[in-house]
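Record passed on here:
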Amino acid sequence: MKNKPNVLVAGFSRCATTYLFNLLKQHPEIHIPKEKEINFLHKYPLLLSHPHLINPKYFLPKLIYYNKFRANKKIKMDFSMMTSYDLSSAKRIRILLGEIKKII
């Protein structure tokens, strides 16, 4: 699958990720979807404050996620901060994206 992201930015709120997002999306070889936080990779987005809530996007088909990225760009980045808050997201990232570069 050529349109899978090959870089994942999984940081924390208030850590300049929006600045990084706006800066990198200007580069001609980088594709970042218009939707900054796709939030597909984590199951429990609010684990600490609301452990009973489950992310509805978690159950969408993976092709819907992959199709958010352009295959013709060298670097495809997913900015999804909430993956940092869910420990189970690491396994899902490995399964869906393989060995991906991560920026935290």
Observations:
- The chain is about 20% helix and 10% strand.
- Residues 7-98 form a domain with the Rossmann fold fold (CATH 3.40.50.300).
- The first strand starts at residue 7 and ends at 9.
- The longest helix spans residues 89-97.
